[in-house]
């Protein structure tokens, strides 16, 4: 419940791979990705979310400084050059863009891809779109966490090939569907939290010889995750993957999926700007510089020194505290931002694109409206409201909720991939896939659309009776909301009634405990979402709009990325909420 969608699970380490020892200390860094081992910390008697956490030498400028080959962008954000500023576009350049567009289909054909986080929501939408529009694509290697190769294949068959999302391809290929999918999708047993991605020698040789584009869709999106787990997945893993990418002989692009919320708690319009190492989201004159290596060493020291039974909770607390100290709202945002820093600091001549989606929700049109996998950010609020469990919430109704459907995010990824993968310029380019500056929607709109939908198509309770909902009540403080929700739960459960002579003390005690757990769960959810319920920033999407303008008319129709075309009322009432009922509520009920 406490997640944005962005994707998925991982872990990697800095710019250059490291030789490590299976202890609590980090060895010196190595210069080659080949043969590097990855051993994480483990504490006897309890299970760590990652088995080995790397330590870094302090004050090593080479480890954290940006590449000396860092390109300098020109003012209109075209491709970069290694020296000086790129020349402005010529008339012929603009004419070519107008005539041919970005060249998306020609780029996709016969290209080979490596995708991490492949069983995640967004990655599935991306894979489906590529296979549907470009059946002549080469191989798509899918990094799958599994105990062996057969288990990896089984996951691909069950979670991707057997997924309802691919229904259009099933209809197109009929009995040949499975053979077509297996001719394109190559399961690779591996783990992004290991050096060389935990890939076996044969697969390593094949991938490094054949892959043209790497897409990192893996992340840990839990807002209140342990600091060690979030660092492993969102900061260390992308850097390990970048180190792996440098072994790929044909690589034309490294595309990393992030989130717009790496911009932190800053009001105003937030730009599509790459992070430099050490940036924070607060006034640097009053706060020490963020040191990624220090953060990793800090966690290593805590795991070494704390009693094992205190580690899980302490690591959650320290993650939130460090995020707030440097101007981010939670450990997810902080570790994703540090992951971007690691990529930029050591990309060298690897062409890099970072796509930052905002809140990703169900598909708008393709391959059909309303497909979704699991609860996304705003969905627990919508569904709890529809079930009558959340008649009020801690939220400013006038806050802009930046939402984008998953299929539009996939189109931004593909278009940016084609544009920058074709030129393979050793630059870093950032794209915001976001709606708040081009087609904003407020929280009150989302909740009003939900009210109207559930009034017309109410959910039913365990007895089959229709659930009646009321207008949402809005609260501006956690104290007032906490009092309200505790009282509401007590009244609906019957706990607020006076104790009668025939009441059962044990039953009442169990009911009190149940109501307390329900209230604590909702209040915890409200605290997690509070920063977004009162968020004052909006996300600039100039680069994305420029990309849209460079696409041909045919490309614009086949890969739509114009968020201005979305009628939000129609989307929520006819696509998203019906999709939640079909793919989230129904699945939860059947399981």
From TrEMBL:
UniProt key word Lipid biosynthesis: yes
Catalyzed chemical reaction(s): a long-chain fatty acyl-CoA + 2 NADPH + 2 H(+) = a long-chain primary fatty alcohol + 2 NADP(+) + CoA
Documented EC number(s): 1.2.1.84
Entry keywords, A to Z: Lipid biosynthesis, Lipid metabolism, NADP, Oxidoreductase
Domain Thioester reductase (TE): 115-413
Name of this chain's protein: Fatty acyl-CoA reductase
Segments forming domain Fatty acyl-CoA reductase C-terminal: 513-586
Homology family: Belongs to the fatty acyl-CoA reductase family.
EC top class named in words: oxidoreductase
Organism: Eucalyptus globulus (Tasmanian blue gum)
GO molecular function, one term: alcohol-forming long-chain fatty acyl-CoA reductase activity
GO biological process, one term: lipid metabolic process
Function noted in UniProt: Catalyzes the reduction of fatty acyl-CoA to fatty alcohols.
């Amino acid at each position: 419940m406490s997640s944005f969608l962005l994707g998925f699970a991982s872990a990697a380490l800095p710019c250059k791979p490291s030789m490590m020892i299976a202890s609590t200390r980090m060895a010196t860094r190595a210069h080659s990705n080949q043969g590097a081992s990855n051993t994480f910390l483990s504490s006897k008697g309890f299970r760590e979310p990652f088995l080995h956490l790397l330590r870094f030498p302090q004050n090593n400028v080479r480890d954290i400084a940006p590449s000396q080959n860092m390109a300098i962008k020109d003012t209109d954000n075209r491709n970069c050059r290694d020296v000086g500023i790129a020349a402005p576009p010529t008339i012929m350049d603009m004419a070519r863009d107008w005539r041919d567009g970005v060249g998306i289909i020609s780029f996709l054909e016969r290209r080979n891809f490596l995708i991490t986080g492949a069983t995640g929501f967004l990655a599935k939408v991306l894979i489906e779109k590529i296979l549907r529009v470009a059946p002549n694509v080469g191989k798509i290697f899918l990094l799958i966490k599994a105990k062996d190769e057969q288990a990896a294949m089984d996951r691909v068959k069950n979670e991707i090939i057997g997924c309802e999302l691919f229904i259009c391809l099933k209809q197109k290929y009929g009995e040949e569907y499975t053979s077509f999918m297996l001719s394109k999708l190559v399961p690779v047993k591996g783990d992004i939290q290991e050096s060389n991605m935990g890939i076996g020698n044969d697969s390593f040789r094949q991938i490094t010889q054949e892959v043209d584009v790497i897409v990192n869709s893996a992340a840990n999106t839990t807002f209140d995750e342990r600091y060690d787990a979030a660092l492993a997945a969102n900061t260390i893993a992308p850097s390990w993957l970048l180190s792996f990418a440098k072994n790929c002989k044909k690589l034309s692009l490294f595309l990393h999926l992030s989130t717009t919320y790496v911009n932190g708690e800053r009001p105003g319009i937030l730009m599509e700007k790459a992070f430099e190492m050490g940036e924070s989201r607060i006034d640097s004159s009053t706060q020490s510089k963020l040191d990624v290596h220090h953060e990793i060493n800090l966690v290593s020291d805590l795991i070494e020194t704390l009693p094992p039974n205190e580690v899980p909770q302490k690591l959650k607390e320290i993650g939130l505290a460090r995020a707030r100290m440097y101007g981010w709202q939670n450990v997810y945002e902080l570790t994703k931002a540090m992951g971007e820093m690691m990529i930029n600091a050591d990309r060298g001549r690897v062409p890099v694109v970072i796509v930052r989606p905002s809140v990703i929700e169900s598909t708008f049109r393709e391959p059909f409206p309303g497909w979704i996998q699991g609860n996304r950010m705003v969905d627990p609020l919508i569904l709890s409201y529809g079930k009558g469990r959340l008649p009020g919430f801690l939220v400013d109704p006038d806050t802009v909720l930046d939402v984008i459907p998953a299929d539009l995010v996939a189109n931004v990824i593909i278009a940016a991939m084609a544009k920058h993968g074709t030129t393979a310029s050793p630059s870093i380019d950032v794209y915001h896939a976001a709606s708040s500056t081009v087609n904003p929607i407020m929280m009150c709109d989302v909740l009003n659309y939900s009210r109207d939908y559930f009034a017309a198509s109410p959910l039913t309770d365990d007895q089959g009776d229709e659930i009646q909902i009321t207008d949402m009540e809005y609260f501006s403080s956690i104290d007032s909301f906490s009092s309200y929700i505790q009282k509401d739960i007590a009244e609906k459960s019957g706990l607020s009634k006076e104790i009668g002579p025939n009441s059962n003390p044990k039953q009442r005690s169990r009911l009190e405990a149940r109501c307390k757990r329900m209230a604590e769960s909702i209040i915890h959810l409200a605290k997690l979402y509070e920063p977004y319920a009162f968020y004052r920033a909006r996300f600039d999407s100039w680069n994305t709009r420029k990309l849209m303008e460079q696409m041909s008319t045919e490309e614009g129709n086949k890969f739509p990325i114009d968020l201005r075309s979305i009628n939000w009322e129609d989307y929520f009432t006819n696509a998203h909420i019906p999709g939640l009922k079909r793919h989230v509520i129904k699945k939860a009920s059947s399981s």
